[in-house]
Amino acid sequence: MNAYTSDTFFDGKIRLTQDRFGYRFSIDAVLLAHFADPRSGDKVLDLGTGCGIIPLILAYRQPHISLYGVEVQTALADLAISNVRENRLEDRITVVCTDMKLLRPAMTAGPVDLVVCNPPFRRQGSGRLNPDVQRAVARHEIKANLSDVIQTSHRMLRKAGRLVLIYTAGRLTDVLSGMRIGGIEPKFMRMIHSRQDAKATLVLIEGVNGGRPDLKIAPPLIIYDRTNDYTEEVASMFRP
């Protein structure tokens, strides 16, 4: 029997139900939503939407965009649909329960302007597989791998549309080379460090569909300060 928690975001502006014991969103989703920075009028696609947290954040931050969230796991897709309804955003967010490999532009009323994704970081067969199915699929390349994400993004994006990913720093070479091979040119990158003196653990990457080579690297993003609180930059991402 599933047990759920009811959480709030942005001082109660967003309400969110999550599985208490299954997959729960992490700070990765908050960082990705902030970095994605959709433009007014954009059509946005979130691959692997989980409980729908990224579309909810983006819809709150940018009132003039439409969003599609795709989730292969039925229970999570149902949860995302419920969260969209709870926040009265049915007119702006559409949740589709399907395998991303089956997605076609006709399913999103044409090509999209922006794809965001927090893909599974671990290759199938590497590391310990979480016994919880939701968490296992979120962390390991069981239902979709990095190549699937890139190919789907290339297929769904308009020309010059953007793909924004958050990924493990240890597979940076994989994601950069995969994007270029897949027709999405890496254009902007920012390394994420838990603390000032720690090695990078994650990376935020933006690529442009059919773009020209020209990669810019931003200053690093530091999560925690010396007192183990969020840095001001990260703390601001949680404010309304």
Walk me through what this model shows.
It is a single chain. The protein is α/β, with parallel strands linked by helices and 240 residues long. It has a single domain (4-179), classed as Vaccinia Virus protein VP39 (Rossmann fold). It contains seven helices and eleven strands. Strands 3, 4, 5, 6, 7, 8, 9, 10 and 11 form a nine-stranded mixed sheet that branches. Strands 1-2 form a two-stranded antiparallel sheet. The protein is globular and about 40 Å long.
Quick structural overview:
The protein is α/β, with parallel strands linked by helices.
Task: Map the helices and strands.
Blueprint: E1 4-9, E2 14-19, H1 27-36, E3 43-47, H2 53-61, E4 66-71, H3 74-86, E5 93-97, E6 112-117, H4 133-139, H5 146-156, E7 157-168, H6 172-181, E8 184-193, E9 200-209, E10 216-217, E11 221-222, H7 232-236
Parallel strand pairs: 3-4, 3-6, 4-5, 6-7, 8-10, 8-11
Antiparallel strand pairs: 1-2, 7-9, 8-9
Helix pairs in contact: 1-2
